[in-house]
């Protein structure tokens, strides 16, 4: 649809990073993950709804981008949207938005939803543009390419509106774009895993992890709902239980070990327990938590394949 150069493939080579550097990287990721979990917003996860995730993945594919750009774009989009909504609500307290009354919160919420609905596709594309500029292995989606794409799909927008959308995201996030995505956690954990045990087939596991992670993102709500039911032992968890569980859905370290555990099970069931044990030693996450995550995910993979 849009003429782009052929994408460069991310040719990962494991086993080249020293233990000292690996330790620092893993420690940093762990600290950032814990910090994010301590500041979880009520809006977390809302923008990882399946249709939005599918849209991001399909756009990245259409634009010739590497899959990692999609995950980075989703993280940028979610953080931006949460902050954008918070800013709109905060501004309403000082000066009511046109057409809304501060005494009518439902009407105001409807107006916010209308704004998001109207601009969401541009926000998605702008998030992908920004993410493409952060990845060393992808073509940069500049405004000319983005405009050609919008014209190809008959989406009405000017180059100025497109630029304004990108600038709004950058300013709202205070240009803080260097946020870890799940691929970073998976690949770092694989690197450490391979360093600790040279017999682990890291390259083969990475290939499987790519597909497992994509499946989890596309089935995110279903998988995490099953995990919640498993954790609470209740088929209909309460709102309080769901609220407490939000932090689990945002735990990228848990997601990383879960993805690798599923990949290890698929690759060779006889050695997956050893992989789980290693992952526990690396992250401190209990083997039971890793097994629970893997079991639920495998259950849904099996169910999907049988349909």
UniProtKB/TrEMBL annotation:
Which CDD domains does its entry note?
CYCLIN_CNTD1
Swiss-Prot/TrEMBL GO biological process terms: reciprocal meiotic recombination
Q: What GO cellular-component annotations does this UniProt entry give?
A: site of double-strand break
Q: Which PANTHER family match?
A: CYCLIN N-TERMINAL DOMAIN-CONTAINING PROTEIN 1 (PTHR21615:SF2)
Protein name from the UniProt record: Cyclin N-terminal domain-containing protein 1
């Amino acid at each position: 649809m849009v003429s782009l150069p052929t994408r460069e493939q991310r040719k990962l080579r494991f086993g080249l990073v020293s233990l000292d550097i690996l330790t620092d990287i893993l420690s940093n990721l762990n600290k950032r993950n814990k910090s994010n979990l301590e500041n979880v917003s009520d809006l977390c996860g809302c923008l990882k709804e399946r249709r939005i995730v599918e849209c991001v993945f399909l756009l990245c594919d259409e634009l010739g981008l590497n899959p990692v750009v999609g995950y980075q774009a989703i993280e940028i989009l979610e953080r931006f949207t949460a902050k954008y909504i918070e800013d709109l609500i905060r501004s309403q307290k000082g000066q009511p938005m046109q057409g809304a009354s501060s005494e009518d919160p439902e009407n105001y919420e409807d107006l916010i939803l209308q704004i998001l609905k109207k601009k969401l596709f541009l926000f998605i594309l702008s998030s992908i543009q920004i993410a493409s500029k952060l990845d060393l292995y992808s073509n940069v989606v500049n405004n000319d390419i983005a405009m050609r794409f919008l014209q190809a799909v008959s989406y009405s927008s000017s180059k100025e509106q497109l630029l304004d959308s990108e600038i709004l995201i950058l300013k709202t996030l205070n240009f803080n774009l260097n946020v870890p995505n799940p691929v970073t956690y998976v690949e770092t954990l694989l690197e450490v895993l391979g360093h600790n045990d040279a017999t682990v087939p890291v390259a083969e596991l990475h290939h499987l992890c790519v597909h497992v992670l994509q499946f989890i993102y596309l089935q995110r709500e279903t998988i995490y709902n099953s995990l919640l039911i498993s954790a609470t032992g209740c088929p209909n968890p309460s709102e309080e239980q769901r609220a407490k569980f939000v932090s689990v859905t945002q735990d990228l370290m848990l997601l990383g070990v879960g993805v690798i555990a599923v990949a290890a099970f698929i690759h060779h069931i006889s050695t997956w327990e050893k992989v789980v044990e290693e992952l526990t030693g690396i992250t401190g996450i209990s083997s039971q938590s890793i097994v629970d995550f893997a079991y639920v995910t495998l259950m849904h993979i099996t169910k999907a394949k049988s349909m």
